[in-house]
């Protein structure tokens, strides 16, 4: 017995054909106008704007700065470790210095791991005004186009769409308007 959520292929074809016929038939006389729903891929809009290159450049700059700083600290710790091993100080003093170097090494590793979080926060900070402008543009296009609902994409895909629903992707119109009006 097939899984209850997976219908055999002939049934899916018949259902698809029935939906196509209903969609082509259009709304019945006196029926309400179709509900308009739109999607917008905000990430695609951002990537199509000049600001995306500026943000990538800033994040690359920060990454390089942090990598250089981490490398300098790593070298300094390696030199300190060599000095401790070459030292003629009593073993107790050398052990204390080794422990201090190990603590600094752990802090360095934590700092390196925190880089991705820092970059994510910086990206969010840089894109906050862009997202606000995109939201305003989406709202304006939604009102102009008579959309009842706008969803963020990408979505996994529409499984079913009722005949009275008009589904539109606003990604390109939003991108075009943002470019025309100048993105932040």
Q: What is the straight-line distance between the termini?
A: 57 Å
Question: Level of helix content?
Answer: 55-70%
Indicate the mean pLDDT: 81
Give the H and E element order: HEHHHHEEH
Rg (C-alpha, Å): 29 Å
Count of separate DSSP helical elements: 6
Percent of residues in β-strands: 5-15%
Strand order of the largest sheet: 2-1-3
The assembly state of the depicted protein chains is single chain
Going by CATH, the architecture of the largest domain would be 2-Layer Sandwich
What's the shape?
Answer: elongated
CATH topology of the largest domain: Protein Binding, DinI Protein, Chain A
Q: How many strand units?
A: 3
SSE map:
Layout: H1 9-25, E1 35-40, H2 42-48, H3 50-86, H4 91-113, H5 115-145, E2 149-152, E3 165-169, H6 171-181
């Amino acid at each position: 017995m097939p899984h209850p959520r997976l219908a055999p292929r002939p049934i899916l074809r018949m259902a698809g054909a029935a939906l196509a016929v209903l969609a082509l038939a259009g709304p019945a006389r006196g029926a309400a106008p179709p509900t308009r729903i739109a999607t917008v891929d905000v990430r695609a809009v951002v990537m199509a704007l000049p600001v995306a290159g500026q943000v990538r450049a800033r994040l690359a700059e920060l990454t390089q700065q942090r990598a250089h700083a981490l490398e300098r600290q790593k070298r300094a710790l390696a030199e300190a470790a060599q000095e401790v091993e070459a030292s003629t100080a009593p073993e107790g003093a050398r052990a204390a210095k080794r422990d201090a170097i190990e603590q600094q090494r752990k802090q360095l590793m934590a700092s390196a791991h925190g880089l991705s979080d820092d970059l994510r926060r910086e990206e969010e900070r840089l894109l906050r005004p862009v997202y606000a402008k995109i939201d305003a543009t989406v709202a304006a296009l939604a009102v102009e186009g008579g959309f009842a609902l706008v969803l963020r994409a990408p979505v996994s895909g529409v499984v079913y769409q009722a005949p009275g629903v008009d589904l539109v992707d606003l990604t390109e119109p939003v991108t075009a308007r943002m470019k025309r009006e100048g993105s932040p």
